[in-house]
Amino acid sequence: MTRLPKSVLSFGAAALVACLLTLAAPRAAHAVVATLVQVVNTRSTPVPNQDVDHPARHPFTSSCNVLAFAPQGFVVCYPTPAPPISGFETVVQSVNILVNRFSGGGSPSATTLNFFTGGGSYNQYLPFVPQGTGFWVAHQPATIYLDPGGNLQCLAFISDATTNMMLNCTVTGYTVALP
Predict the structure, then answer these.
(1) Which of 41, 111, 149, 163 could form a cystine bridge with 47, CB 3.0-4.6 A?
(2) How far is Cα 173 from Cα 91, in angstroms, rounded to an integer?
């Protein structure tokens, strides 16, 4: 008959006792394991994390309103306040443009939101919906990321150069702090 060494027998006995303890007192076994993997978050030893800048913290709304004669067939306005100059990225989520023609003829042929981002100038075209005689509305959900200090410009083109009209532009979204 072959005899097992004492070390194998003692290891087997320890494993048997550990199994019996786990069956008899599972909470005690879990407590021992939990103490081995415990995270402490105190002022003296904080757990490193990243603050996620929630959009609701920094809402952004910018608007402009201009009453103008359109001798070249277009009217321009610059929404204020402008996006923050540094430390924030502005995200535009919706653009609303209203055109009201007081005199003259014609209808808006196009309207755009011009913006600067990524080192270039871009246009977001918005379709007009007639709301009655001489009154048009354009609404466009969007996701436009503006660079810090990026300019916004609203334009409305109208087919009759003798038109006296009002342009109202509102841009909404939020700003996020840059890391």
Answers:
(1) 41
(2) 6
